[in-house]
Design a protein that fits this description.
The chain has 225 residues and is α+β, with helices and mostly antiparallel strands. It has helices spanning 31-42, 55-74, 82-86, 93-98, 121-134, 141-157, and strands spanning 109-111, 117-119, 172-173, 176-177, 184-187, 198-200, 208-209, 212-217.
Length: 225
């Protein structure tokens, strides 16, 4: 992998020259890859942040986040429509991420004029801070987690989804029969719930990762309109 590539952050689409140290594995700078990697990084707890448990927990969080996007793109369960679950009928990952606008499905990620991809300033500020920490001294957990987000994204866009899926085989969360797989996540706080037929995945089924709570769906009849 070419370590001379310049890591591009979305803050005004500016080049962050000097931020790309050998500590962080860099990927070819395609717009789609950058955007998805930024989402995985932004939604995952890093050392010292609320919700951080361990490096492995944060890596599992990134895999689970990407699997939610994949499920909304490619694995709509019987009785549901993609638009009902994801607020878009598109199966493109970027459309899934930006559905609903500025405060839409994935807060902080949206489209601007002429369909330009936009990230909230707080997102770019955090990613910049994490890159700065990662590139100080010898490679550590920050560098490994940033590199992992980019590797996951590249592999997914090349056709390899994260494996295993920790939620794929769940069939029941009392009192509900459920579809399996996760179709949503939110910050794991009291009173937070995506509504509708989303079902909270409990701690006993690893539903809490990186400070996030993941949700599957109640099972429906296949012929439900």
């Amino acid at each position: 992998m070419n370590t001379n590539l310049t890591y591009i952050c979305f803050s005004g689409w500016a080049l962050l020259s000097g931020m790309a140290a050998p500590n962080v594995t860099l990927m070819p700078a395609t717009e789609q890859a950058r955007y998805i990697a930024h989402l995985l990084i932004n939604e995952t707890s890093f050392p010292g942040e609320r919700g951080f448990v361990s490096e492995e927990d944060s890596k599992a969080t990134m895999r689970a986040l990407l699997l939610v996007i994949d499920a909304r793109c490619n694995r709509i369960p019987p009785g549901y429509s993609r638009e009902e679950i994801a607020e878009t009928d598109s199966s493109d990952p970027i459309d899934i991420i930006t559905a609903g606008g500025r405060r839409g499905q994935m807060d902080g990620f949206s489209r601007g004029g002429r369909s330009r991809l936009v990230m909230a300033p707080r997102v770019t500020a955090r990613v910049t801070r994490l890159l700065r920490i990662a590139n100080q001294g010898v490679p550590d957990r920050f560098a490994r987690l940033l590199s992992y987000a980019q590797t996951l994204t590249k592999e997914y866009l090349d056709g390899t989804k994260p494996s295993p899926d920790p939620f794929e085989t769940i069939t029941r969360i009392a009192p509900h029969a459920v579809t399996g797989r996760a179709y949503a996540w939110m910050s794991d706080r009291d009173g937070y719930h995506p509504g509708g037929d989303f079902v909270r995945i409990p701690d006993s089924l690893c539903g809490r990762l990186g400070g996030n709570r993941f949700y599957t769906l109640a099972k429906r009849a296949a012929d439900r309109p």
